[in-house]
Amino acid sequence: MDYVAFVTLLLVTQYLYFMAMVGKARGDADITPPAVTGDETFERNLRVQLNTLEQLMVTLPAMWVCAHYFGTAFAGTMGLTFFAGRVVYRSAYLTDPTTRGKGMMIGFLANVALLIAALLGVLGELF
Fold it and tell me: Any idea what the CATH number is for the domain that residue 15 is in?
């Protein structure tokens, strides 16, 4: 489980970095809270952060259930794959949001794999 714990901390650190970049972009654009519009760079950073948060709500529990019932190596590897997908996603989204698909699909497929493996592992224990 140490591997999965490490990947969890890596994912949370990545998310904290995305949060910090939103704050930096807000300050650079002089956008006063609660405003969330007015500068494209800020808005792109905010969307990356929020989209990552939405995905983490699937990734983290699925990764831990997968680790417990299916295997830590697979779960951690899929977590790292999700991490890499978020790196690709952020880079693409900040450059041109229409090119974010590759990064989004990497993370999405990692989540699907985690969910399927977790489900198979749980069903294996139940039946």
Answer: 1.20.120.550
